[in-house]
């Protein structure tokens, strides 16, 4: 596996690959890789001739009081994992190369970026779409892979690609979970033993909501009240938001008719975790 740091070198590499008739799959990450990322890499390998993984902790998607400075960095371990999967190229650009002095151009997907996580983390999705668009311009992938744990993120990226006619197909993949149901996340590393023990309540609440909606309860307000009461029994967990929304628009629903998405964010101490589940009532 080759590692490239400079954007201009990747540009050249991708050009050569495309000229040779190869398709390129990109898996953008911030490192601290876990099974969720590796499942994206495996899917990329199935679909594309060349697989490129990027590792870049993107400063513009973190708020001033968030964990940018502490975000876990495990490059040596990440490289070993990627080597085992036999990817073609790892791209690890520097902050200076991605955001040179004077940088002032951002991409914002209006509307959907302001809801849910976008409401709790103003500016977060502007940072995500800007870096992802930059990566697309540098790598020119045919496919790019994102996890459904970050449901809102993959939806926003799909919208950006459609709105801006970007020549890349976005493939989203199911959330990978620990054996107790907790969604795999680089931020699980921050949890104390007690917080980690409390974390499964989040996925359990999603399963409970799905079950309620499937069986008899269609009233979103009533479902959410039950889920809140369920989660609040775990005193180490503080909900940031819990909503049932339209999976395509993220508009809040009043009743669950055909489909819905239960989506939440919660704090365990200072660690913020997100999760979601799709419900189909028929
Ligand atoms: O999901 C992530 O790890 C990041 O938001 C991404 C897509 C790599 C952009 O920095």
Describe the structure.
It is a single chain. A hairpin with a 2-residue loop joins strand 8 and strand 9 (271-280). The chain has 282 residues and is of the alpha/beta class. A 6-stranded parallel β-sheet has the order 1-4-3-2-5-6, with helices on both faces. Strands 7-8-9 form a 3-stranded antiparallel β-sheet, covered by helices on one side. Helix 6 (124-139) crosses helix 7 and helix 9 packs antiparallel against helix 10 (220-232). The chain is built from 10 helices and 9 strands. The chain binds pantoate.
Quick structural summary:
38% of the residues lie in helices and 20% in strands. It is of the alpha/beta class and 282 residues long. Pantoate (PAF) is lined by residues 28-30, 58, 61, 128, 131-132, 150, 153.
Number of strands: 9
**Major sheet: order of its strands?**
1-4-3-2-5-6
Q: In which range does the helix fraction lie? A: 25-40%
Q: Provide a count of the helices.
A: 10
Radius of gyration: 19 Å
In terms of per-residue confidence, which ranges show pLDDT below 50 for 5 or more consecutive residues? Answer: none
Strand content: 15-25%
Overall shape: globular
| Major sheet size, sense and barrel closure | 6 strands, parallel
| End-to-end gap | 46 Å
- Which ligands does the model contain, each kind named once? pantoate
Structural class: alpha/beta
Mean pLDDT: 97
Order of helices and strands: EHEHEHEHHHEHEHHHEEE
